[in-house]
Hints:
The protein is mainly α.
Amino acid sequence: MLLFRALSALLSYPSQDMRQALPEIADVVRTALLTSREQRGLLDLIDELGQGGLLEAEERYVDLFDRGRALSLHLFEHLHGDSRERGEAMVELKRIYEQAGFELAARELPDYLPVLLEYLSCRDLAEARAMLADCAHILTTIGRSLIARGSRYAAVLQALLVIAGERPIDAARVPPVKERPGSLDREWAEEPAFAGAPMTPAPTARTSSV
Length: 210
């Protein structure tokens, strides 16, 4: 399903290639099996990603996703933190990818949401919906955190919840978060579960067929 590849690109670290592909991504969103509300949210995000220079888009991304665990796009971070259980869960998820004929790029962690979405883009819709439903509570947690910060990235999480058959988050019931500039979640400074793994999400999420 091409929509999953488009959503993966939108959640990945901004690059010049991604920005150049925004018109194509918008076309995918407009023809996707989503409600008009979800489509509008995604198109607003696409417009924002295309505004200003690449450096501005990178700064917005880092300011959101590198500031605290509540906004981590590494799914198992929300379940296990940096415990041994997270490592075991990632090994199992990597095994699922490999059994389907996909091999992760060396720098990618299997629980990074753009990686999962790229994998799902190559699977049938029933399997994709089942996997998204399994992690719907995590998607909801991330989506609520994005809504609380007034981020248009929340549209991607809302779309995923709808695809999974879940009710989207009622943004009106999510209280806004007031943060001091430069504040950081100190837990984020802990070592990742895998020795030598990058502290921040890799710039792109790629899987390749074996």
